[in-house]
């Protein structure tokens, strides 16, 4: 069982660098040492950027890929064959945080390959990915069909007190109303993204040759902009314990969450089926933190003025059944309450031929809420 969990970890790491009806399942074979190419991606229709990850498994460890190719076919036609993202591009955010020697060592340590797809996929597209590595020594492929999204989404919000960590705390409550896609079995995922962009501006006062402050015709001091940057924070925490659909009828409260005597596998990926509302509508009730405490963030920023633009995006994704089962398996594997000794073993779906991994595709409808802008400044 330990070997099986390690194998899952290798596959899950590839997707994280991005969430019985499947064609096959990841085999459990402790004696297997032959290297296998792993391909992972979670595609979204409508986006102009989707990332595909290639790893090389060597037993229970990750090997080094020197060379790899990727081809995308949509509805039987090849639409893209991108170049792998360079280590310099992938780790560019670390360049100013490490010295030259450490940064070069980091670039050399990149053992996997990442490809950026820019083709905008559409619902109903038949999508095929083919990848090779090490001059064709390894070859994998996967084929999926993008599902149709739901047609309408309504979101109502308010501030509500809920019990969290032993006390009543204010949260943002959401009532999300959706209409099931009719006459078929459907699988969905809910995601709420709180996005905060802090634009930090630093001004330097202007002085003349005598060291005196310069003023304009209105008597106001004249400043020069010396720094203008945007810092982004993204939050996806979601509390779904009161919703009968997202908990599959097992609603709980904060006391249950904190009671170690009764293990409970949380629906961390907020996936659900239409079993309780087939061919009809449903309203989901969930909560997120308010994310209105900006003190620590502002303390970390060096600024003269700071502007905050905050948006909340509610995403309702339609999923194929294999994608739903994949996330359901990860719900268990990622949960501290999962005990392989007393619970059913987990089968992690794989739909990659010739190797390992998972290719998923979703189609979404979204609802965006723009929060009031805020600003801070020393003057």
UniProtKB/TrEMBL annotation:
It comes from the Bacteria. InterPro entries: DUF4249 (IPR025345). This is DUF4249 domain-containing protein. It comes from Bacteroides stercorirosoris. It holds the Pfam family DUF4249.
